[in-house]
Amino acid sequence: MNIPKSSPTGGCGGGCPTKEKGADLHRRDFLKSGAAMATVTLAPGVTLMSMGSGVAAAANPDTRWGLLIDAAKCPSDCSACVTACSDEHGWENNGEPTDPQWIRKVTLKNRDTGFENSLPVMCQHCANPPCVDVCPTGASFKREDGIVLVDRHTCIGCRYCMMACPFKARSFVHEPVTGQKVTTPRGNGTVEGCNMCVHKLDRGEGTTACVEACKITGNNAMIFGDLNDAESDISKALANYPSIELRADLKLNLGVRYQNI
Amino acid sequence: MKRLIIATIVLFGLAVGMSQAGSVYPEIPMASGEAHPEGNEYWRVNHMDLLRHDRDLTMREGIRDTDASIAECVTCHAVNGLDAKPVTVKSEDHFCRVCHDYAAVKIDCFQCHNSIPPELSGASLMFKKQANTLEVLMAYIEGLSR
Looking at this predicted complex, what is its ipTM? Predict the structure, then answer.
């Protein structure tokens, strides 16, 4: 069977492939998800979209994802969260200074008393992130739901954000990468860091790899949840027990909070 | 505009070329799954813009049921090598290379994105497209006719 693709005279008989303009792409997108979204036209050219309730979806501005880490429950010899993150996202740290490090275990020692604390540190998902302020391309950005990310499509690898971060939470990919996890594309020449497992959150799983691993160990040192929801476990724990932000003096309003340090 | 003209010429070349067996034009490997409702012509010309547009939706807004997901492209458009396993983009038989090599287009997407179908179910690929429109059928038939 043969379907003619173009008329023999060289004209395409109205079927010429034409390139869609930006506006059409957007229009197409509005139409695309009709089942899940309601589009209300307020005035010509002004539309209001709302997600149907069935959609486990998309960065929601009413949400602020956060983590609460209880250092008293975090044994110094446990690094289950680090291993889980590495497995989930496909990064590997072999101790080289340039190896990626989305999350790491840190030991704090009180020089006077000798008391030691062990805790995981990762991107603190600031409400006022310095990494976003300094990014020259807009690649470093904060999602509506408070997650601070690197858009690696616009990251030029300048590493200003790594300098600006008070928590050394980001790392740079120095070598070509192969065999990436489908859910975590990563590659040479760009900056990366904890993404709070956005792929899981967008799927509606409401948890992260590190927190799940911590639960499995039985230590239950980490709680994940919505800081804006007063009924969430994390909000209740924050309301009932003392907690701190690292480097609270910087007034960055962190999404990750600690107890017992 | 220049790019548009080049793309049109190249793609017209592809379209003509494909109907002439044994020509130097690239042979685009068959895909599995449902064809695109918009038709092959549309996708040949617009796939890069769709990818970019939907990439921003996913990356910036967390919307994941997009039409153009790169992980989905390489799933339906997987090409098996001699070992009966899908080839990576290192092979010139990879779907995303046949036209690009021909048209001297270089993309960097696969420095980060995996170029073979996700083996893990955890990737949760969702095919949202509604089937059985005339265009889907036409695109499928067109594919067969090659």
Answer: 0.77
- Per residue in A179-231, pLDDT (tens digit) is 899 999 999 999 999 999 999 999 999 999 999 999 999 999 999 999 999 99
- For residues A68, A74, A77, A83, the Cα torsion angle rounded to the nearest 10 degrees is -30
What residues of chain B lie within 8 A of the CB of A12, using their CB? 12
Where in chain A are the domains?
A: 65-259
Cβ–Cβ contact B113 with A under 8 A: yes
Closest Cα partner for A172 from A151, A153, A186, A154?
A186
Chain A residues closer than 8 Å to B37 by CB? none
B41 contacts chain A (CB < 8 A): yes
CATH number of A65-259: 3.30.70.20
Q: Do A186 and B112 touch (CB under 8 A)?
A: yes
- Is A82 a residue whose pLDDT tops 50? yes
pTM: 0.82
Task: Give Cα separations from B142 to A3, B30, B80 (angstroms).
Answer: 6, 10, 21
